[in-house]
Amino acid sequence: MKKTFFCIIILIFLSHPLIGSAGSSLWLVTNDRLGLNVHWALGGFDKDSKYSYRLTQSRTKWVREHFYTEVFMVENPEAWYERYDYVLNEYHKKGIKVLGMLAYGPENGDFQQPDLDSWEDYVRTIVYRYKNKVDAWEVWNEPDSPTYLTPNNPETFGPILATAYRTIKNIDPDALVLNGGLASPNVAFAEKLFQDYNQYFDRLAVHAYYCREGNDRLLADLNSLQTVVNNYRPGEKIWITELGCSSFDESFQESYLSETAQTILETGFVDKIFLYNIRNRETGDAYEDHFGLLTLDMRPRLSWNWYRKIPRGPYDQPRISVELEQKYAQDLKAVLEKYFGEGKIPIAAENWPTLINAYVYGGYPVIALVQSLRFGGKTVHPIIHYDYWQESTDYQNYINKDLVNGRFVYAYGKARLPIDQEQQKALELKRQLQNQYGLEHLRINDANWIRLLNAYAYGGYPVAAIARAVIYGGKTVHLEIPWKVWQQSNDYQEYILKPVPAA
Q1: Which of 448, 452, 460, 468 is nearest to 486 (CA)?
Q2: Crossing angle for the helix pair 215-232 and 250-266, nearest 10 degrees?
Q3: SS3 of 167, please?
Q4: 142 with 207: CB under 8 angstroms?
C-alpha cells in the first residue's frame, strides 16, 4: 500500500530573518562614522566663534585634534595649555568626541625619534590632563613617510608607539590607542607593525588620498590591507584618520568625497573616517592649501554643504549601541512571529536591517511593519520617518487593508488564528480524516493541504466535505465562499453524497 505523507506546516515564507547589526547601505555614511580633521587649537586663532558655529551647524560628532609636542615643550607652556583647555571644553560642551594626535619632536621640524624618556613625560602630561575630554589617541602621524619620521621605518616608529601605548593605558585603560595613521594603506609597514608591535595599538589607522587615481586603486589597496589585518586580528576594522581631496573644483571635490565615503564604508572593513580638512590653509602650496571643506575664512564650499547634511544615523536619529539594536531586533522578531508564525516572517535576510531601522529609528509601529511585509513596503519608507510617511496615500491605503480586529484577513474574510491554534486545527483535521476515511484514499498532499486546512479552520467546512474535495475536483469545497453559503450550491448538494473510495 502506498503511503501519502504531507506536512502540517502552515505556510512557507521567503526566509528566516537574521538577527544582526541593523546597518543598511542607506545609512552607512552617518556623522558618528564620518568625522572631521579640525585641529582647532592650532588653526583657529581669531576664528574661534566661526569654528564653534560651523561645528554646531554640521552636527559633527568626531574630530581629530593635533596635540603638537613643540608647543608644550617650550619654557612657559601655560598659554598653550589654556588654549587647549578652551578648545577641549568647547568640544565637550557640544558632545563632540575627540581623537587626539600626539606628534612630533620637541623642536619645529623635528621628525626624528624623540628621546623616549622625554616623549613618555610629554605623553603622560597630555593624557593625564585631557583623559576626560579625549576618547581615542593616535600616536604620531604618517610614520611611514619621510616627511614626518626620519628614518621612516617600523624600527624607528615602534618604540615611539610602544612607549606612548604603555603610558596612555596606565592613565586611562579604556582609551582607544591607534598607531599614527600611515600615509597610505601601506601593507609592508602595517605587517611589520603587527609582527613586532601588535600589543601596542588597538586599531590600525591609515590615510587615503586617491582623488587623482580613483577608487578602483583605493579599493584594491584596502583589500590588500584587509588581508594583512585578518591574518592577525580577524574581522577587525580600521580607522581612516585622513581622507581628502585637494581641488579648486568644488563640484569635483564634493562628488569625490561623498562617493568615496560611501564606497569605503560599504567594504565593511572601515569603522571611522576623518575628512581632511575643515578649512583651506595658507601655506603657499596650492596642493596643500585646497583640501578644505570651508574656505580660508570659513565660508562653505560645496563639500561642506554635503557634509553638514550627513544624517546622525538611520532616519537622522542618533545611533544606539549594537547591543541595544540586537535586543530590539529580537523583540521585533518575536512580535512578528505572532503574526506570521515561528520562523515564517516573509522577509529576505538582506532586507531585515531595513525593517529594524524602521522599527528602532523610524518610529514605525509594528502593524505598519506587518502591512509592509504583506503589501510590498507600502506602509514603511526606508528614508522618511513615520511621522511624515503616515500621511502618504500609500500608507493610508494599506495600513488597514484586509485587517480584522488588528489581525490581517487570511482566508474566507477572517483574520488568521494564532499559529498554535492553527496547528491545533491542522492536527484535529488530520486525525479525523485518518480515523474516518484513511488519508491514503483522499489524494491529499503538500500542494493542496493548506487550502483544505483553510477551508476547515476558516471556511467552516465539515470533515465530510474536506474528504471529498480532491477526489471530486473541488465540488464540495470552494476556496473563497464559506460552507454556510456553498452548501446550498448544486455542486455541493450532488457531490457531498458521493462515496469516498475505499482501499
Answers
A1: 460
A2: 30
A3: helix
A4: yes
CA–CA dist 377, 338 (Å, integer): 19
Terminal Cα distance for the chain, rounded: 9
Q: How far apart are CA 495 and CA 474, in angstroms?
A: 9
pLDDT, tens only, 169-182: 999 999 999 999 99
CA 175, CA 137: separation in Å to the nearest integer?
7
Query: In order of start, what are the domains of the chain with their CATH numbers?
Result: 31-310 (3.20.20.80), 322-401 (no CATH), 419-495 (no CATH)
Q: Is the peptide bond before 185 cis (omega within 30 degrees of 0)?
A: no
In this prediction the pTM is 0.80
CA distance 236 to 222: 13
pLDDT tens digits, one per residue of 179-235: 999 999 999 999 999 999 999 999 999 999 999 898 999 999 999 999 999 999 999
Number of H helices, E strands in the chain: 20, 11
Give the three-class secondary structure for 342: coil
24: cell is 543598511
The pLDDT tens digits for 73-87 are 888 899 999 999 999
Phi and psi, residue 99, nearest 5°? -100, 110
d(CA 15, CA 197): 45
Pairing of strands 238-244, 205-208: parallel
Residue 215 DSSP symbol:
H
pLDDT tens for 336-370 read 988 887 788 999 998 999 999 999 999 999 999 99
Q: Rounded to whole angstroms, what are the CA distances from 452 to 101, 455, 482, 484, 488?
A: 70, 5, 12, 16, 19
**Average pLDDT of the segment spanning 4-32:** 54
How far is the C-alpha of 276 from the C-alpha of 364, rounded, in Å?
Answer: 37
Q: Is the dihedral of CA 373, 375, 378, 379 positive or negative?
A: negative
